[in-house]
Specification:
Radius of gyration: 23 Å
Helix content: 25-40%
Shape: globular
CATH topology of the largest domain: FAD/NAD(P)-binding domain
Structural class: alpha/beta
Strand order of the largest sheet: 8-7-17-18-19-16-20
CATH architecture of the largest domain: 3-Layer(bba) Sandwich
Number of domains: 3
CATH superfamily of the largest domain: FAD/NAD(P)-binding domain
Bound molecules: flavin-adenine dinucleotide
Strand content: 25-35%
Oligomer: single chain
Number of helices: 15
Largest sheet: 7 strands, mixed
CATH class of the largest domain: Alpha Beta
Length: about 500
């Protein structure tokens, strides 16, 4: 069945995916043009992608806590336009749990050195001096990058185990790009010195963030409604399975429709003048018909992803800790990060006498964690919560589990060369752009996923932005925190 998308002479723009990027592309297009009509095609039955909010018996939760923070003015403006007073300000507290102690996060070296004990602090300093005198000459990996700046001992305590939990590979196999993108080029000595000399200013650290009252999904549900009110379409349960092209022009996409009860409803064809994609690049390249040249397909197969799952536990008593979230560095447990959803917004919980805790596990589709039954995951998460001394396993009264494939694009040794090949080929298409996080295979938060989508919409309207440049050079708030004098006095490197 063919589906002519044009209506009343408006030029149809087909958008693949109703996550932050796809919905932003549609919103931006409508904001600046009456002559275009977005048709957003979403494979699942929820909008928001990885930034959606799930619900279990009235308990709302994110796929990992989603903070709203940006330096991009137009993104900030859109968040406020869409949510108005429903966009709340939340105080931020997050710590690292390591060796049965809490350490400040972002890591403040003075706090780290005093909390870890004098003997270990001494070893950290000696190791730092050693690596300053004899650094790795040609730093290629994440591990070498960090050790050159902070020493081997500090790396071992505060970087290695968490980074390996997140990525499932050794810090030796992760490219230094990732560290360089996440941590400003600085040294332990600079961080310590700044903390000492600018000590009075550390109180002025920005310790709050914005958040939709009912979780991040609220932002994307509202955006969907606005897109529809303005005459656009957001079609749910519509998975793009083929992208049809004639030479350098994309002509249509084939969409598999499904229904929760009836199952597969067959395929329909949606035509368009322009196309904006936010599905993962690896899937996209395989969806083209005719397929791209073999080297492009081979490059797509070299892109890797890290998967993720969250076990939310409802406890029969008040919050076990005040933080929004805690990083769990201890290698004794599998959990990587623990959320406390009331600290994000009290409206995430229906019952004030309970707590809602999100136990986050980084995993690989098909591995032991991913394939574990929901019952076993609940038992594991409850046991680990008790092992960490945060609550008793018997306090758990309800649980829900969400598995999220392709949560993180992996920056391994071969991704950059592969991406170059894919980028060059896609740039040759006349009316097709790709945006977002997995759509660019870039470690983008919502803001940069959105900015790339805004640029794609504006390119259709005649502007000329290079989407692939978004977030190449970034100094992001969380890599290091600046005090009033602009000095870095704390250091953070963690995956959201
Ligand atoms: C654990 C975790 C924590 C995070 N924390 C933060 C945070 O604190 N702050 C922040 O700003 N960002 C955070 N992020 C990043 C944020 O989730 C992403 O930047 C954002 O969701 C990316 O938006 P997107 O639209 O590019 O992609 P996605 O969110 O992945 O959305 C893509 C959409 O496309 C759909 N789709 C895929 N394939 C098809 C197809 N073939 N046909 C139709 N539809 C398809 C998917 O179902 C999905 O809805 C976090 C990410 C993770 C994993």
């Amino acid at each position: 069945m063919s589906n002519k998308a044009g209506k009343a002479g408006k030029s149809p723009v087909v958008v693949i995916g109703a996550g932050p990027a796809g919905l932003t592309a549609a919103y931006e297009l409508q904001k600046h043009s009456d002559a275009h009509r977005p048709i957003v095609l979403e494979a699942s039955d929820m909008v928001g992608g990885i930034s959606r909010t799930e619900t279990n018996n009235g308990y709302r939760f994110d796929i990992g806590g989603h903070r709203f923070f940006t330096k991009v003015k137009e993104v900030e403006a859109m968040w406020h336009e869409v949510l108005g007073d429903d966009f709340i300000t939340v105080p931020r507290l997050s710590r690292i749990y390591y060796r049965d102690k809490f350490f400040d996060y972002p890591l403040k070296p003075i706090n780290a050195l005093t909390s870890i004990g004098p003997y270990e602090a001494f070893r950290i300093i000696i190791s730092y001096i050693k690596w300053q005198l004899r650094p790795y000459k040609d730093e290629q990996s994440f591990e070498e990058w960090v050790i050159n700046r902070f020493g081997g001992r500090l790396y071992m305590h505060f970087f290695r185990s968490y980074t390996e939990k997140v990525w499932g590979i050794s810090g030796k196999e992760i490219r230094a790009d990732w560290a360089a993108q996440r941590i400003k080029n600085m040294s332990l000595w600079k961080v310590v010195w700044n903390a000492l000399t600018g000590a009075n200013d550390t109180a002025s650290l920005i310790e709050e963030f914005r958040y939709p009252r009912l979780g991040p999904g609220m932002m994307w549900e509202r955006t969907r409604d606005i897109v529809r009110e303005r005459g656009g379409e957001v079609r749910m349960r519509s998975e793009v399975v083929r992208v049809n092209r004639a030479g350098r022009r994309v002509t249509s996409v084939d969409v598999r429709k499904w229904d929760p009860e009836k199952g597969d409803l067959g395929t329909e064809r949606v035509e368009g003048e322009h196309f904006i994609n936010s599905m993962a690049l690896r899937d996209l390249i395989h969806a083209f018909d005719p397929p791209p040249p073999p080297e492009v397909v081979a490059a797509a197969d070299r892109l890797k992803y890290r998967d993720f799952l969250i076990v939310t536990l409802v406890l029969d008593h008040a919050d076990p800790f005040p933080d929004n979230w805690i990083y769990i560095h201890s290698p004794r447990v599998k959990v990587g990060r623990i959320q406390n959803f009331r600290a994000w917004s009290p409206e995430m919980l229906p019952d004030p006498d309970t707590a809602s805790i999100g136990m986050e596990y980084f995993c690989q589709k098909g591995d032991g964690l991913w394939t574990m039954s929901d019952e076993d995951l609940r038992a594991l998460a409850s046991r680990e919560l008790e092992q960490l001394g945060l609550a008793k396993a018997s306090d758990v009264i309800d649980a829900a589990i969400i598995r999220q494939p392709k949560a993180y694009p992996v920056y391994d040794g071969e991704y950059r060369a592969a991406l170059d090949v894919i980028e060059a080929w896609l740039k040759g298409l006349e009316n097709f752009q790709t945006v977002g996080r997995n759509g660019l295979h870039r470690y983008n938060n919502q803001d940069h996923s959105m900015l790339s989508a805004m640029y794609a919409a504006r390119n259709i309207l005649g502007e000329n932005h290079n989407i692939w440049d978004v977030n190449i050079e970034r100094s992001y708030h969380e890599e290091f925190q600046l005090d009033r004098k602009g000095k870095a006095s704390a250091l953070a490197v963690a995956a959201e």
